[in-house]
Specification:
Number of helices: 3
Bound molecules: 1-O-pyrophosphono-5-O-phosphono-alpha-D-ribofuranose
Shape: globular
CATH class: Alpha Beta
Helix content: 10-25%
CATH topology: Rossmann fold
Largest sheet: 6 strands, mixed
CATH architecture: 3-Layer(aba) Sandwich
Radius of gyration: 17 Å
Number of domains: 1
Structural class: alpha/beta
Number of strands: 9
């Protein structure tokens, strides 16, 4: 078992403000005549999707895709695995991909190609958190909630080894193995 120290980066109130701002930006760009098709990336995107969908005040349809680039450690493997495919067709829909965080950009770039192959009418991306200093794959982001530094973050859907997803805030996590006594590097995004 590791010792972990949390430093709050975004409070629940700050996140709520960011979600409201994003919802207003998105609402301005879409007409209400056809539902906006929200595709959330599991697992981390579940809380953001729930809050964004309710803040949008637009007709929406909702689907999930589960893609992962991380194992049980703090670094992206760079290899994307599709763990759960889309349930609904995207053809002729206005699709908005909903990500909790964009780090290297590999997951979102892969998902954009994946969704585009289904021939949506339009395709845009929203990320609550953006870590541009870690970008390895050029990935278009249409809407960004918060730009954050290169810290290992958890909470509001994001985990470290499947823990901390339930936290109502976003915190940087410094993990120190009890046995080693030293601190592991705090970079990279947890799975
Ligand atoms: C996280 C996050 C993004 C992705 C971003 O998911 O939810 O989907 O990593 O990283 P990238 O920009 O370097 O590709 P993760 O693979 O940890 O899966 P999880 O959401 O199930 O924890």
């Amino acid at each position: 078992m590791d010792a972990a120290t949390q430093t709050v980066l975004l409070t629940a109130n700050q996140i709520a403000g960011g979600v409201s701002r994003l919802a207003a930006e998105i609402r301005r760009d879409y007409a209400e005549d056809a539902p906006l098709h929200l595709v959330a990336v599991l697992t981390g995107g579940w809380i953001f999707l729930a809050d964004l969908a309710r803040a949008l005040a637009l007709p929406v349809t909702i689907d999930f895709v589960d893609a992962s680039s991380y194992g049980a450690n703090q670094h992206s493997s760079g290899i994307i695995r599709l763990r759960h495919a889309l349930r609904l067709p995207v053809q002729n829909r206005d699709v908005l991909l909903v990500e909790d965080i964009v780090d290297t950009g590999a997951t979102l770039a892969w998902l954009l190609n994946h969704v585009r192959a289904g021939r949506p009418r339009s395709l845009r991306t929203v990320a609550l958190l953006d870590k541009p200093s870690r970008r390895a794959v050029d990935t278009p982001l249409d809407y960004v909630g918060f730009t954050i530094p290169d810290r290992f973050v958890v909470g509001y859907g994001l985990d470290h080894d499947e823990q901390f997803r339930h936290l109502p805030y976003v915190a940087a996590l410094d993990v120190r193995p009890r046995s080693a006594g030293g601190q592991t590097p705090g970079d990279g995004q947890p799975s």
